[in-house]
Design goal:
Elements: H1 2-48, E1 51-58, E2 64-71, E3 84-89, E4 92-96, H2 99-102, E5 108-113, E6 124-130, E7 139-145, E8 151-157
Antiparallel strand pairs: 1-2, 2-6, 3-4, 3-7, 5-6, 7-8
């Protein structure tokens, strides 16, 4: 009889321990799984996002510079105005604010879609960088970074 009571108590203690372990380990596994899924989605988005600065030109007074940027990835790019543009002479470039963020300051940039209504695969945007005066001749550097961190760089002379 003593052995039966001892065995029953050990079985109950074992079941209680298993419930305790399950209740403490399962939430950690679930959170870890959610984090891995989220990270995989971000990596997938970055892998599908690609841009290419295909051409740059300026107007005759060199106060306006145009950059044509093509979406060569497989994913639509949203919130273009949230992108970052670094622009200037190759040894003296700066982050240029978007039109609505710049207020009345120069330089500033804006964009327009060239061949689509959204920046989908194979669509091109024309970025217009506006200065208040001629920034000078030389080799210029442009780096455009979309909101998820994908970027392209381009050097050109004007």
């Amino acid at each position: 009889m003593d052995k039966a009571i001892t065995t029953a108590l050990l079985i109950i203690a074992g079941v209680v321990c298993m419930i305790f372990i399950f209740n403490s380990v399962y939430p950690m596994i679930n959170r870890s799984s959610e984090a891995m899924t989220s990270m995989a989605e971000q990596v997938d988005e970055r892998m599908k996002s690609r841009i290419n600065i295909v051409h740059a030109a300026n107007n005759s007074t060199r106060t306006v510079v145009y950059l044509w940027i093509k979406n060569v990835g497989t994913q639509r790019i949203l919130a273009v105005e949230e992108s970052d543009l670094f622009f200037g002479q190759e040894d003296d470039f700066e982050r240029v604010p978007y039109l609505t963020d710049a207020g009345s300051d120069y330089p500033r940039w804006s964009f327009e879609l060239e061949n689509d209504t959204e920046w989908r695969t194979s669509a091109t945007i024309k970025v217009t960088v506006t200065y208040d005066s001629d920034p000078g001749a030389g080799t210029y550097f442009a780096k455009f970074i979309i909101p998820n961190g994908i970027y392209d760089e381009f050097y050109f002379s004007m």
